[in-house]
Design brief:
Length: 107
């Protein structure tokens, strides 16, 4: 099944294009936003942490982390909480089921 990026993720990826990235070492990055604020991104084990804490608050990675992910040529889908992933095959099934239920109620 095809997976689609949630809207919030698409927004964070598009914002990341306006950031500057500095690679400190293999697990630490410094990202300057377009508002000239600096954020540190650190890889701890297999988890990324950003000083803005957006990922911890929302479950969706921030534009700062998006900048690092895109720079490392990684798949952003790997870093999206499964709760926010959209499986188009499943969404299509739910839509058809809802349509069928509405149609049978009207008859």
């Amino acid at each position: 099944p095809l997976q689609v990026y949630p809207q919030g993720v698409v927004q964070e990826i598009s914002l990341s294009f306006h950031h500057e990235l500095t690679h400190i070492d293999e697990s630490t990055f410094l990202v300057k936003s377009s508002a000239f604020k600096e954020y540190s991104i650190i890889l701890i084990g297999e988890k990324w942490k950003c000083s803005c804490a957006y990922l911890e608050k929302t479950g969706i990675f921030c534009s700062h982390l998006a900048k690092v992910i895109m720079n490392l040529k990684k798949d952003p889908m790997e870093y999206i909480n499964p709760r926010w992933k959209i499986n188009t095959e499943r969404a299509d099934q739910v839509q058809k089921k809802y349509y069928f239920q509405r149609k049978t109620r009207r008859n």
